[in-house]
Predict the 3D structure of the following.
Amino acid sequence: MEVSLTSIAAYSYVLVAVCFLVLGAPLAVRQRRRHDIALGLACLSSVLWGATLAWEASVGTPVSALADSAELLRNASWSAFLLVLRGHFTDPASRLPLRLQPALVLGALAYLGCLLGTVGDWWSLAPTADAGALPIAARVAMAVSGMLLVELVYRNRTLHERWAVKFACLGIGTMFAYDFYLYSHALLFRSVDTDIWAARGLVNALSVPLIAVSLGRSKLWSSPLSVSRRAMFHSATLFGSALYLLAMGSAGYYLRYFGGSWGTVMQVTFLFAAIILLAGVLFSGSFRARLKVFISKHFYRYNYDYREEWMRFTRTLSKPGPDLGQRAIEAVANLVESPGGALWQRVEGGRFEPVASWQVPAPAASEPAGSAFCQFLETSQWVVDLHEYAHSPDKYDALVLPAWLADYPRAWLVVPLILHARLFGFVLLQNPRSPVKLNWEVIDVLEIAGSQAASQLAQQDTANALMVARQFESFNRMSTFVVHDLKNLVLQLSLMNANAAKHKDNPEFQADMLETVDYSVQKMKIMLQKLSRLDNAEQPLALALDEVVAQAVALKAAFEPRPELVVEDPQLRVLADRERLERVVGHLIQNAIEATPRTGRVTIRLLRRDGQALIEIVDTGEGMSEEFIRERLFKPFDSTKSAGMGIGVFESREYIHELGGSLEVSSTPGAGTTFRVLLPHHQQETPAEQGARRAA
């Protein structure tokens, strides 16, 4: 089964040798950094490999042991360069863990064994009948290991560092990927395709410009790096999957070879079954958990990558949604590969009630806060291993397990949630997907995670309590304003009742009386509607300001001195709630009337100032001092009136500010007071503008 090499192959391999010679020659005059030396040796080995294959292709001889040795040297050199680029030989702090160093030594010995084995016929591309496919399978394994190293180098770089190595990874990965394609094809068809073989040199030559571009960015190559657990997990999964598929492909070939007429059917069925089995294993939570535990146990000093675990823990707790209890269980359970659990939390009444569950049925049992179980969790703050307690209860001093725990045969851990040295709650976790050894590190992580989860749950409870308190505050505040409005209505009705005996036969008084009674009834209906609704949101409307102010003045017509209205600009419009704005203006007018003697004057002017609507309420009453205006006028529940509540002016200012306006006060003791209400003027839309807005 010889490989026929044409002159095209000779030119192809000559080209790759020349390209790598051009790439490696400048490294001789560069600063002698370790990655420069490693890259120079890798280029030199590629030159030797390309020249050897070009010479053998030109003379028409099959691939010899010399060419096999050159290829092995080339693969080993590029793998060594990737290890240097990865950072293991650059900084002692970033070297492989002690447990991995023997594996690296074994890999180097394997390369050396393959190099020595090239003198035999078993490595040749023209193997004997007895040699089978083992040599090509070894070549496939070398290609897979090269791709694995490329993936590790790129994955373990930061985003900034990937900018420097991405083209080198792409170029070197292309060489190993093409080798994988070439030898996988040869493994399946028991012969090397001459066209693929001839194109190999051209493909390797294409990787040279990519490596050259990355070489110009080599200042960032030598940063010390360490392999994260996630990278190790994905790499181990990738490498294991590749080896599994390689073994299954070989087994499928033999099924086809010895299966006779059923060979092809058996091969296809077997391969698809193998792929389905691989997918099932990769998606198995138990397998993934066992692999993570294995990697942490054998390749790292600590069980956790604390940065990654804490980020995942925080992201889980910070997800939006109301189910914080479930997310707290999930975040704690993921630290020990537990598939589910339940949360008990202290509630009013001094009991711990089940408030959430994750991937388990919702429990119903509760536990008194004064029980021996809860007291033990609070005083010791220990994580309770129920399996250990079953075998060695003396390790837990005075711990007495509640009877309801017997209803949970898969219960494993009780994690206390401690907040301010008190037991806020506890989480009951199920047995893990893979065996987890509870050493001091795991227990400390669970205790800290429990405290963090308790803090988040307490913050949620505080926010809910604050929301309820604000609802009550809003209701109480509205009730206060309603009482204030009722006081004003009672005052108006009392004044009307006092004047009824004197003016009951006066038709004008009768008309004013009916209007006042009707207004009082309407106001009380509106107040009852507000008290009966939980949602007090108002929909502001465009109002003609002169109509609102005229209505407020008309309701005060029975008082003395009688207020006078002067409208200088009847075109003013504002965006507000009619009833509230009328109440605000009416209250300011009422205060002016009460502060002015009967012989005085109260004038309300409506005009425009600086593009804003201005309501000016001027009286000739007692006036106020600057100190009173500054310290007492707008202070709620502070009133100079015997029957006053002191919230009218405060409510007026708050609503005016809510509308985007302002309330100005100027007063002189003994000379009178002027209130100025400034409101944004609302421009009325034309029919064309209204149509455009609706269309938009």
Remarks:
- The chain has four domains: 7-223, 228-301, 306-456, 538-680.
- The domain at 7-223 is CATH 1.20.1070 (Rhopdopsin 7-helix transmembrane proteins).
- The two ends are 76 Å apart (CA to CA).
- The first strand starts at residue 341 and ends at 347.
